[in-house]
Each structure stands twice: as structure tokens, then as C-alpha cells.
Design goal:
This protein has 266 residues and is mainly alpha-helical. Helix content is 88%, strand content 0%.
Amino acid sequence: MALDALANVFVRLGTASRKGITRLGFAMRFLTAVVSHSGTALTRPRLVVREVYFGGVLSLVIVGISGLFIGMVLALQGYETLVRFGASESMGVLVALSLVRELGPVVTGLLFASRAGSAVTAEIGLMKTTEQLAAMEVMAVDPIARVVAPRFWAGVISMPLLAAIFSMLGIYGGFVVGVPLLGIDAGAFWGQMQAAVDWRHDVLNGVIKSVVFAVAVSLIAVFEGYDCTPTAEGVSAATTRTVVTSAIAILALDFVLTVFMFRGGV
């Protein structure tokens, strides 16, 4: 009995792995189709701008507020540790490096997936459920070029900009807590931060991370919506998968990118 139970476990793991690899292959083929049809979408910039507004501009509030408060918390938490080593003037370095290298791209990606990614999946899934995508095909309109590609590129454009805004407001939040509340010298805060934060090793790495996360989240969102079961339950399940899969993908890619950047000194 024990051997049969163990065998069933391995069978289930193998089946789940096979399905996951197959689905990943479908997603890569779907990405190829989106990129190949992007010319049509990019020649009609109004489609992309509209989606940038809905996906990016409407996410500014939650991203901005989150960045501000995370920067303030970083300053409060870091001050106690820095004081022990007599390095309280380095608070600007601590806040800036934490946000630019790591927290800015990662937290923005998670927020973007939760707010904009789930909305894109639900919207495309609803269009599939109500047969709007099938109607486009009947009228000789490619739904990938008309519906999917603009939303994909809007996410790729929006998320790096949101990550930059997140980091900027986070640094400002650290300044508000560090200088007026904790009494750190403003010149030391900005001066040490500017001297320690390197454009190539810190800022550029953060930008690369945010772009990679944007591609991953946007692809997952449009793929789950386009591939969902055309029912209310199917759309709900696809929306949930978008948030969960995006979170796992962001954290896994963050580890991989950090390893390569750390070793290569990019």
C-alpha cells in the first residue's frame, strides 16, 4: 500500500510537470505570435496609449502611496541599526540602494500584477466568453493584433516607469522621516546617497529587472486571458492564476537576475 501511494505521488508530480512544461511551451509560442503581430498594434499608437492609461496611469495611486510608505518604513527600521554602528548619516544610501536595486522593481511588479495584470486577464477573458474575439476573426480582424498586442506592450512600457516612480517616492519618504523627524543632516543624506549609488551597477540593474518583470507579467496576463475557459468560472480561475503565477515568476526571475548581476558585476 505504501509503495502504491508513493507511486501515485510520483505519477501526479510527473503529470503536473508535463502539463506545466506544455503550458510554458504554449506561452512561448503565444509570445512569438504577439511579437510578430506587434507591427499592426504599434502603427496604431492610440491603442497602446489607451492601454497605458488604464494599466499604468490608473495604477499610479497605489504604486506611489506604497513607495512612499515603504521608504518611510525603511528609514525607521534602518535608523536603529545604523545608529549602533555610528553610521546614521548613511541612511540615504540604505534607502536608495534597497529601493533601486530590489524593492522598487519587485514590489512594483507585484502591485502591477495584482491591479493591472488581473484586470487585463479578466477583460480578455470576458471578451472570449462573450465571443467578441470570435466575432473579430469572422470580420477578418486578428484579435492578437487588435486586442492582445496593445495590452502587452502597454504593460511593458508602463511597469518600468512605475518602478522608477516607486523608487523616487520611496527615497523621498526616507528623506521625510530621516531629516525632519530623526534629525539627520540633509546634505549628508543626499551627498552620501549620490556618492554611493552607481548608475551602471545599481540604477541600470534595477531598470533591467523592471523590464524583465514587465515582459513576464504582461505575457502571463494576456496569455491567461486568451487561453481561459470561456465561462464565468474560467475567467475567475484565469485571473487568480495571473496573480499567483506572476508573483512566483517575479520572485524566481529576481533571484536569477540577481545571481547573474552579482557574479557578472553588470
